[in-house]
Each structure stands twice: as C-alpha cells, then as structure tokens.
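Figure 2 data, in text form.
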Amino acid sequence: MNALHSGNEQDIESLYNRVAFCGALVTVLIAGTTSVFWVLSVFDSTDPYQHFVPMVDETALTFLIFGVALGFYRKCCYNRKLMFFNRAMLIQVLCIGLLCAIDYAENMPGDLVTF
C-alpha cells in the first residue's frame, strides 16, 4: 500500500512541477515580449486613439521577475541557494509594487522611464 501511495505522490508532485513551469513560461514570455516592445519603443503612450492598450512597463518587469521566481519555486524545496534567490526575486516584486502604490497614492505619474 505504501508503494502505491508514494507513486501517486510522485505523480502529483510531477504534475505540480509541470503546472508551475508552464505558468512561469507563459508569464515570462508575455512579460518579456512586452518589456522588449517597451525598450524598442513599439508602444506609443502619447497616442490617445490607441486600439491596443499595452501593459505598463513596471507591470511587465514585475511579471517577468515573478515568472522567474515561479519557475524556480518548486525547485526551491530541495536547494537552499535557490530558495535564497527565489526570496530575493519575490522581495523585488514586493518593492516594485510598493513603489508603484506610493506613486499612485501621491498622484505622481512615476514610471520606469522617469525613475
């Protein structure tokens, strides 16, 4: 009975790893593409008649960092160095979010371009 139970736990663990990796991959691809478009000035933030409203550059950067942290999340349980790296990435996400919240609360139009 224990062998069957441990096999099911390994299958569930493998499923969790795949779901976390797929979520991280999608998040990094979308945020990375958006970040590259912002760097290349593909988005024109001054055009009031845009049909497509892009993701804000801070949001893209935060999602990029979060996607990397999510990708390493399942591996962190077994490696102490990766756990430190993952926590550092999540602290960066929290700091960027806090800075954006402060800018919003003070009605300052701050973004990464004018940082």
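Caption note: Residues 2-39 form the longest helix (38 residues).
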